[in-house]
Each structure stands twice: as C-alpha cells, then as structure tokens.
Amino acid sequence: MSKGDEGYGKWEELVGAALLGTDRRRGGGPAGSPEALLDAAAVHTVRRRAGLRPAAAGPRPEPAPRDPRPAPPEEARRRLSQLLAGRTGAGSGSGRRGAAPDLTELLPQWLAAAARHGYRAPAALVPALLDAARARTDLRPQALALAGTRGLWLARLNPDWRFALRGGAGGARELPDVTDPAGVERLWQEGLFAERVALLGAVRAHEAAAAPRLLATTWATERAEDRLMFLDSLRVGLSEGDEPFLEAALGDRSRNVRATAAELLSALPRSALAGRMAERALACVGPEGVTPPAECDAGMLRDGVVKRPPAGRGERAWWLGQIVEAAPLSCWPERFGGLGPAEIVALPVAEGEGWTEELHAAWCRAAVRQGDAPWSRALLGPPSASPAAGPGTASLAERAKLLETLPDAERAEWVAEFIRAHGLSEAFQLLGVCVVPWAGALGRAVVDALDMAREAGSYPWSFSGVMGLAERCLDPAEAGRLEALTAATEEPPDAAPGAAAYWAEAFQRLVATLRLRAAMLSELAPAA
Amino acid sequence: MTEQGVRWTAEQVLALAPDDASRKAGSRLGGAGPWSQIGGSASGSVWGLCKGSGSKPYRTVVDLAGPAYKCSCPSRKFPCKHALGLLLLWSAEGVGEPGEAPDWAAQWLADRAAKAARPAAGAGAPVDEEGARKRAERRAARVGAGVTELEQRLADLLRGGLAGQEQAGYAGWEETAARMVDAQAPGLAGRVRELGTIPSCGPGWPARMLEEAALLHLLDRAWLGVAGLPEQLAATVRSRVGLPASGEGEAVRDRWLVLAQYDSVSPDGRLTTRRIWLRGLQGGRPALVLDFGPPGRPPGLSLPVGLVLEAEVRFRPGSAGLRADLGERISAAVPCAGVPSGVSTGAALEAYGAALREDPWLESWPVVLGPVVPIPGELGWQLADAEGTGALPVPLTGSGSRSRSGLWQLAALSGGGPVTVFGECGHRGFTPLTAWQPDSPEPVALS
Prior knowledge:
- The structure holds two protein chains of two kinds.
- Helices cover 55% and strands 1% of the residues of chain A.
- By secondary structure, chain A is mainly alpha-helical.
- Chain A has a two-stranded antiparallel ribbon.
- In chain A, a hairpin with a 2-residue loop joins strand 2 and strand 3.
- In chain A, helix 1 (8-20) packs antiparallel against helix 2, helix 3 crosses helix 26 (499-524) and helix 23 (440-455) packs antiparallel against helix 24 (464-473).
- Chain B has a six-stranded antiparallel β-sheet with strand order 13-12-11-14-15-16. In chain B, strands 5-6-7-9-8 form a five-stranded mixed barrel. A four-stranded antiparallel β-sheet of chain B has the order 1-2-3-4, sandwiched between helices.
- Chain B has helices spanning 10-14, 20-28, 81-93, 103-117, 129-160, 165-168, 171-182, 186-197, 205-224, 231-241, 345-358, 404-414; strands at residues 35-41, 45-50, 58-63, 68-71, 251-265, 272-280, 286-293, 307-315, 323-329, 334-335, 364-375, 381-385, 390-394, 419-426, 429-436, 444-445.
- In chain B, 45% of the residues are buried.
- Chain B is of the alpha+beta class.
C-alpha cells in the first residue's frame, strides 16, 4: 500500500527525531518535547492507516490450464484429505498393534482407484498432494497424475515442488494437437522435460514412426541423462518401427544409453541385433552341449555385451549369459529338434560341465525381458515342486519376475497353489506381483494359511508382512467371510502365551481395513 | 425439510473435532456398523447407541443448535469420538424421519431447553450498587496510576531515542508490562509487550516502534480524558485498556454465517484463543466471538466455517462494535448455500479506515474480498482485484500472519483465476482465512 499522503516527508522527520531522541535534538524540529513528538506521531499513524490505498498489482501468474477431468465426489474428497493428513502420523511401522486399521497404506490405493475413474485432484488438496509426493517417491507418479495441470502450475511457483517438473507424466501446458507440426515442434524445443516426455508419448500413440523422427531432431544436443530417460520411455509400446533409431543408439557416447538400446533391441525378436545374438547363442548352445564364447569381440561389444565380469564370475560364463539373455527364445525349438520350452528346459544340456545353471538363469532373464509366458511357465515348473528343485531358478525374486509374464488368473492360481504346498513364509515376494484385489482362490489360500499359522500357535507378527499385504490386497468382499476368524479362540496347548488374543486382534484389524477399503472404493464410484 | 434441517457436510462435522486423533477415531465410527437406535427430532437433535468395548453401549446425543454434546463414554475430549461419529453418520445418510427421543436423550435435551429459557444468570440477583461503584473507583485509580507511569516511560524512550532499543533488550519492557498487570490494565500490558518485541523484528522497526509507541500514548491520553469522550469512544478506550465491559450491548438477531474460525496460542503456551468471525446475512453486520482454552485443552465453542445459525448475538460496547457474545440460538445450524459477495481492495481499505474512526487502535477489519487473484511472490504475496489494478499485500511475518501452507492452498484454489476470500484487512495488509472457488459454494478454511 502506498503511503500516499502529503505528510510522508514529515513522517520520516518524526522517525528521525524519535531515533535520535529529543534530548539530543536542539533548535526546534518537527516536535520539541517527547509528548509533542508522540502526539504528532499518533495523528500521523491514524491518518495514514485511515487513508490507505491499494498498491499496484504485480505481474499475475499465467492462469493454470483447465483440467477437464471431473472432481471426485464429496465423500471421496474428505477421505483423501484424511489420508493425506494421516500420512505424517504413526505409519505402518513395525510393531503396529491393535485392531484399528492403518490408513497410511491406503493412500496409494486411493490414488490408483481415482486414476481409474479419471478424476482430477480437488484444488484445495493439491498442495498436500504435492507435499506427499515430495516425501514419498513411490507415490509420485500417481499423485502427480491426479494433481494434473494444476499441480504442475503450482510446482512452477514453489521451489519446494520443483521435482514435479522433471519426471512423471503429464504436462504443465495442454499438449498441442499431434497433427500440428508447428505446435509439436515448439513444445519439443521449449518444453519442460515432463512435457516433452508426455509429448513423445502422445506422438508415438498417434504414429509410431513419428517419435524417433522427433527424437532425432535434437538427439545430438540432449544431455546423456535425458537421452537415457527418453530411450527408457520407448519401453512401453516398443515396436519394430523403433529399431533403426535404437540401432543407431548402439553407437552412443554414453555406455548406459548403449546398454539400454541393446536391451530394448533384444526385446524385439525380429530386430537385427536379436538376429546377431541368436547367431552367437546358437553357436554356443545346442543338443550336443554348451561351448561358451572364447572371446568378447568388437561386434559383441557394440551389441551391448559387457566385457568385464563382476568379481567372482568367470569371463566365459559371463559372456554366455549375456548372449543367451539377449537372444530371442524363439530360436531354440528348431535348434533342439522341434522340442517345446518345457522339454528343452528339462534336457540335461551341459550337465557335468557346470554350465546348466548359467544357461537356465539366462533363459529366465530372456523370458522376463521378452515377456514370454510359455518359457516362463516352463522355467517356473509346477508350483507344488520345491523351489530348490525347480528347473529355472530358486530365487524368489527371479520367480516373481517370471510370474509377471503369465496372465493374471494363471499367476494368481500358481501362487495360490504354491502357498498351499509351501506355506506363507516364502510367498511374500510372489504375492507382491499378483493383481490387486487378489483373486478369490488366492485370497482364500492366504487366509487359510494365516489361520493354520494361528492354529500352530505362533505369534501373528511372524506374519506381519503377509498380514500387511493382505490388508492392502485382499478383495474387500472377503470381509464378511473373515468375520468368523476375529473371535478369540481357545489357545492350543502348546501355543505361545497370549497368541490367540493377538491373532483375534490382527484379524479384526484386517477386517476393519477391508471394510474401510470397500467404503473408500464405493465413495469413489460416481453417483449413478 | 422433514428431518433435522439441512445436513452438514462431513468437513463441517470434522471441524468440530478437538484434535487429530479424535478426527480419525470419529471417522471410523461414522459408518452404520457400531450404531443402533439412531434417531433425531424435528427441533434439531440426533441420538444413537454406539457399541464400545464394554457390554453397555454408549449413549450419545447431539443438540445441533449448540452444537452441544452428551455422551456416556468416559472420554474427556469434547466432542468425543462417538458424537463425531454420530454426526458423520447423520451427515452422510441422515437419521430418518423425526421422532420421539428415548428417555436417556430426552432428559438431557429437556434440561438444555429449560436452561435456554431461563433468563441470564445473575440478572435477578440483588445488586450492591454502592459496593460496585466503590470497586470501580478503586480500580480506575489504580489504572490511572499505571497510565501515568507508562506515559513517563514513553517520554523517557523518546527523550533518549529509539536508536538504543535494538541493544536494550526486552527485559525492560517486560518489567513495564508487569507493572501494567499490577495496575489492573491487562490491555496496556499486552501492548507494552508487543512494543518490546518490535526492535528485533527486522528492517523498518524504528517506524513501527514509533507508530506503536504513539498509539499507546494516544490510549494513555484518552484514558486520562475518558470522562469527556463520547460514550462509544469511552467504551472503546476502557476495553482497550483492559477493563471489563460495563453495561449491556446491543442484541442483534439474525442468521449468522460462520466466516472463519482459528486458534492462536499465547507465547507462553498457556492460553489458546479461538477467534470466530460471523456475519449477519440480513443485517450484514460482522461479529467477532472469542473463546479461550486452558493449556492442552481446546476452547469449548466450535462453529464450523460455512454454517449458518439463527441466533441472537450480543455486541459489547465499544471496539468498533466487533466483539460479541453468542446468545440464544433459535434453530439448528445449516450449511450456507451460496458464496458471500465480496468487495474490491479499495472498498476493503475504506471499510478499515471507517472503522478506525470508532477505534483508532483497531489492527484490522473483517472483509470478504472478491473477486481477487492471489499473486504469489518470493518477496511477498498479493491479492489483486480481478477487474482493475489494485492489490493488497499479504503479511507473511509478525502477528496476524498465517502459515504459508494456507497461502499455497489459496493459490491452488485460484489456479491464477479469481476467487472470493474472507480475511482480516488492516494496515499491514490482508490476512486470508477462508476462500471460495467461483464454481462452488463450499468454503475452504485455509490452514
């Protein structure tokens, strides 16, 4: 506000007199005695306050782009605000007790469900959402998607939220029409990284071949970090149209870019790189046995094979693994006289020479990379078999990745069968890749296993990981069926003391959380 | 409306919660699960039985007009989680057709009704007029002595100059403030403490210190000549010095919209002050209702933003007619259906300026501003008229400023476009408290 009245200069004089003190100020001045100075200052102060005028407005922020998505219903908005407020509270830390549901872990599910309904974030909650995304990187993609254009608009204004402008999908500006070359060109040249990634996605969705053309226009001037991110964004919807561009990227300055280009090419079974790898692999592996490469030549290096093995691995085994991993799995049946994956995996290839483990591990990585369900199935073996005796790998992390290539229903069925055969203690990672909410049979297998653990008399916190997972992943419709388990049962004679009561409480919390999830999801459903 | 008036939104219910834990606990009880025998009356009350951990369910009743609560649970929180849960349930689903309250609820509701009908306590008591006059005289004499001493202190300050104040420290002013407390002039004590903090408040402090010293001097002089002042101004001076209000204020019956409610805690953490801003929908008059809470306890009165309650509000004499007490409530509170109309930045400052005529010590005046566009800035925020070029700064530091998170909420609501904002407009700028988006009647309390 401007001070704007005629006595402004006089006010400055009064302040000067007050700073100095009336004792030191001789010869008149605006006010002689302290009382007179205070009188004058009082008149001034009240007059200035009463006569205040608005100041000139500074530059206004550019208005945020309109977000055409609907806002969630009121109940759902309230739930989100609760979940965001609760996120800083006592989280899902260890030693969590009691029958009350845990709200923290429900936030990711709320965000995912809201995304399915295509909602935008309620404007008033966007700052809290950005704060949450800042604190929890796992929430970032979904939180930023929900916050949408309003979130990016805010992030431009507040340095605390700068992170939102890099990474994540969606743009602060509305994307231009992909058929408008000038608009596409402008955003590609001037846009923020997130906007450019979004633009690239939109252009690819419209015409696959246009994306590499767009990338090529600026490729030489992009930073290595950005080149890597752009390449990585091609992973989704990768097609043969991308091959020439990827092939060219095999000669990139950055080793990471080269490796990623090679990896992507190997996931295209008909690419030239895949063909070269198949040739190398078929030369090494066949019905007659395994002969790993004797050297890592220049061609292999250019195709992304890393020469130096990590500590403790042999050179030749290391090269073999990389070649087989990058070779299309479709090349093997012919080499093995028309056998299917399961039969090939079962063959005693190279037994006694010690290459079997290396070969099977490479096949596992190839099946994951190429998303090949028949090979995954063969490498996993029957779920009832002991993991150690499986054909592919005993590593649960690797098996979880193989499972991801199977169709949803088959995956759930396989894990359910695994739990029935081996119990819960090893199932944690496998459960993590199953689609939420869990299919009926899978959910029942988990609950039955938990109930058996209770009957065996152990403490529920030995299973807190699975219990937490169940709270997040069980179908809310199971809540009714679970009710029977919430009653405290008699302690088995050899049970740990107090275990029955703790189990009852744990099941109560499970039921309460499922009910809450059910309520949460129904709140998000648009009113009919 | 067949049942208990228009139902509140869940936000409005949750605004009643005394703390975060109650909010969460109440939310969990907001489903039909643990409840039985739920009902409500046409006169604005709801009740229900809530299953707890014991064998007997808790009996919960809420009088929506208060709102006031009664629950048989042992919780000392107020309202308890059961009352919140019951209100949430009512807000989400209603409680059906109005009916007869069960005995346990009816008794309490009847007691409340009887209490409301009774004349204000003390009105019928015999008044010892002579004694009261003597007490008032004694107190006036003590305040007078304090005022004279304070004038001496201010004169010393100006004689020696403000320049030394940065080094002088706060202790001297704290001592003077204590003398004002002894002189039974708590209003002066508060202003003296405030004065003592100014030298450590950053650039421009000498001008601010001179302003505050001058206004304190003005108050001293006004007190010394209070007998000659017009009655309203005299009442203002007495209340600014810290004397209890004498005489009855004006009672205004209206439908009062709750514009804002926020708490501040005294520097020593011992007292929570809750400010509730109301505006009469018919008369347009603003009112400030204060309530206080001892350490660790929130104040008892809670009125969620956006509710409208029909009630009698009694204004205290003086202080530009802002301070008020909530009197008899005529009906249950209901949510407001529209966005209050706002004024330009110029009109907001004019309103503050006009109010200074009645109370020159007034820091700010309640104003609904709008449509305005919030302009965030590294150095300071502004609220600018959507049509025109005028803008008000938003104070970021010092007394009366609000947290930055509330400002970011305001920016998020606006998205660079116009919003309506309620807040306190004064010589330091405009402090936003509540905002409305253009397309929604739902107020957002800025945290």
